[in-house]
Amino acid sequence: MEDLSDDQLVSAFKALGHPTRLAILGWLKDGNSFPPQDRPADEVGVCLKHIQARANVSQSTASQFMATLQRADLVICTRIGQFSHYRRNERTIAKLGEAIGGDI
């Protein structure tokens, strides 16, 4: 597995530097801890509206949080109709864990 560049590491750590974004990444580890959806969370991810509700933030703030995590390649977005669903990018998270010498 290819190592993350210094720029990728900085981007990931900046994205995780906000407590709510860090919490969201943790919540997404078990997508089934969110309310049921039409499609299973482990297949398409968790709908932004569920992330927003759990984080108790506005839709625009939730979107900004997820955009930051996505730019850092920590989450993957799948669009289904008008809704965005997010799941963890386990490949990048594993690389990040290797870079700091442990699991995240």
From TrEMBL:
<feature type="domain" description="HTH arsR-type">
    <location>
        <begin position="1"/>
        <end position="104"/>
    </location>
</feature>
<dbReference type="InterPro" id="IPR036388">
    <property type="entry name" value="WH-like_DNA-bd_sf"/>
</dbReference>
<protein>
    <submittedName>
        <fullName>Transcriptional regulator</fullName>
    </submittedName>
</protein>
<dbReference type="InterPro" id="IPR036390">
    <property type="entry name" value="WH_DNA-bd_sf"/>
</dbReference>
<dbReference type="InterPro" id="IPR011991">
    <property type="entry name" value="ArsR-like_HTH"/>
</dbReference>
<keyword id="KW-0238">DNA-binding</keyword>
<dbReference type="InterPro" id="IPR051081">
    <property type="entry name" value="HTH_MetalResp_TranReg"/>
</dbReference>
<dbReference type="GO" id="GO:0003677">
    <property type="term" value="F:DNA binding"/>
</dbReference>
<dbReference type="InterPro" id="IPR001845">
    <property type="entry name" value="HTH_ArsR_DNA-bd_dom"/>
</dbReference>
<keyword id="KW-0805">Transcription regulation</keyword>
<keyword id="KW-0804">Transcription</keyword>
<dbReference type="GO" id="GO:0003700">
    <property type="term" value="F:DNA-binding transcription factor activity"/>
</dbReference>
